[in-house]
Amino acid sequence: MRTSSTEPAASAATNKRVLIASLMGSSIEWFDYFLYATTAALVFGKVFFPTTDPVVGLMLSYLTFSLTFFIRPLGGFIFSHIGDRIGRKKTLVITLSLMGGATVLIGLLPGYEQIGIWAPILLIVLRLVQGLGIGGEWGGALLLAYEYAPKNRKGLFGSVPQMGVTIGMVLATLAITVMSTLPDDQFLAWGWRVPFLLSAILVFLGLWIRKGIDETPAFKQAKASGNVAKIPLVETLRYHWRAVLVAVAIKFVETAPFYIFSTFIVSYATATLGFERISVLNAVTIATLLTTVMIPIMGRLSDSIGRKRMFIAGTFVMAAFTFPYFMLLEQRTMTSLVIATVVGLGLVWAPITAVLGTLFSEIFSTRVRYTGITLGYQIGAALAGGTAPLLATWLLNKYNGSWVPVAWYIVGTAVISLIGIAFAKTVADND
């Protein structure tokens, strides 16, 4: 079921506005999302899950982080249906509003000492709302860029929403880093809440920017010709389930190492290796800044050498770098910490994530593209992303602090993704 490839070309000015809208909205959504992830590693175990065993408190905190990944597919089901039936733009307004509202409420939520068991319960509820929002956001932001892109720039345009992931992470890390300069008691009492509350400003800005963008040319053409799926989820699972499985497998090596390099490292380096919290956050910030620069470069390069070739090369390098990564960390110096984090996130992970969205988009036709890429992305994230910090912490504890099982876990995700990419087939030639 394919659409015509004769979609009208957008002007350069329109393309620029689309990329800004896609990037801004994606950055804000991921800022909210990673703000929680970073704070979960440093604060939530103490504020919402106080226990006599700090490892248990940390794992409970990571559990709330992981639960969201399993609600993200539900958000994907709901909003991809809207996106494939009604449009990409309208869906993005809803997802950004959900995400922003939940984030602000987390910043206002009393801790365990104030309201007891209701504190972790409400935290989980708000985190699940965040998961619903982000579940539909990624696909819409990606398609806003991809379906406006010129045919020889699909890789570049498809990489721009991926920059939102790292920009959002930089903003979240910087926000927590600034607030971490407060004394520990003030940081735990109120300092961590400030970035959550200030995110409301970013949400209003994102909604204003997206308001001025029209629906994508590909979707308008599909809707005008009546080539819109009645029940996108059913059609996707019935006719495109193999492509969904391929997308899920491809997602493994992009998501699990990312959360090891960016989230798990915060608690591992501070609690096990003895680094200062700000030192670790600074290393992650430096690495993420480099990643943000590298993603569009890799995306543009993929327009010349091919998406699959770049993804396969990046995956092999990821598997090869895993053991050196932990060996560098074990040196327990600031220099080795920065090198490990910068190489892992900035150089090894960047080409993988840069082409991920475009790879996904090219294996689904327009009528089910929102649903297909969202299912693949969110199910893959649930299986390999949300569980990564939790599983890594469990492995570290089970094997008496040894990082070797964690390294083999990352290698395993690379193998799964290599199997997936071997079966990837372009069924929609940039339609």
From TrEMBL:
<keyword id="KW-1133">Transmembrane helix</keyword>
<keyword id="KW-0472">Membrane</keyword>
<keyword id="KW-0813">Transport</keyword>
<feature type="transmembrane region" description="Helical">
    <location>
        <begin position="310"/>
        <end position="328"/>
    </location>
</feature>
<dbReference type="InterPro" id="IPR036259">
    <property type="entry name" value="MFS_trans_sf"/>
</dbReference>
<feature type="transmembrane region" description="Helical">
    <location>
        <begin position="334"/>
        <end position="360"/>
    </location>
</feature>
<keyword id="KW-1003">Cell membrane</keyword>
<dbReference type="InterPro" id="IPR011701">
    <property type="entry name" value="MFS"/>
</dbReference>
<dbReference type="InterPro" id="IPR020846">
    <property type="entry name" value="MFS_dom"/>
</dbReference>
<dbReference type="Pfam" id="PF07690">
    <property type="entry name" value="MFS_1"/>
</dbReference>
<protein>
    <submittedName>
        <fullName>MHS family MFS transporter</fullName>
    </submittedName>
</protein>
<dbReference type="InterPro" id="IPR005829">
    <property type="entry name" value="Sugar_transporter_CS"/>
</dbReference>
<feature type="transmembrane region" description="Helical">
    <location>
        <begin position="278"/>
        <end position="298"/>
    </location>
</feature>
<feature type="domain" description="Major facilitator superfamily (MFS) profile">
    <location>
        <begin position="18"/>
        <end position="431"/>
    </location>
</feature>
<keyword id="KW-0812">Transmembrane</keyword>
<feature type="transmembrane region" description="Helical">
    <location>
        <begin position="30"/>
        <end position="49"/>
    </location>
</feature>
<dbReference type="Pfam" id="PF00083">
    <property type="entry name" value="Sugar_tr"/>
</dbReference>
<dbReference type="InterPro" id="IPR005828">
    <property type="entry name" value="MFS_sugar_transport-like"/>
</dbReference>
<feature type="transmembrane region" description="Helical">
    <location>
        <begin position="406"/>
        <end position="428"/>
    </location>
</feature>
<feature type="transmembrane region" description="Helical">
    <location>
        <begin position="190"/>
        <end position="209"/>
    </location>
</feature>
<feature type="transmembrane region" description="Helical">
    <location>
        <begin position="117"/>
        <end position="144"/>
    </location>
</feature>
<feature type="transmembrane region" description="Helical">
    <location>
        <begin position="372"/>
        <end position="394"/>
    </location>
</feature>
<feature type="transmembrane region" description="Helical">
    <location>
        <begin position="243"/>
        <end position="266"/>
    </location>
</feature>
<feature type="transmembrane region" description="Helical">
    <location>
        <begin position="55"/>
        <end position="79"/>
    </location>
</feature>
<feature type="transmembrane region" description="Helical">
    <location>
        <begin position="156"/>
        <end position="178"/>
    </location>
</feature>
<feature type="transmembrane region" description="Helical">
    <location>
        <begin position="91"/>
        <end position="111"/>
    </location>
</feature>
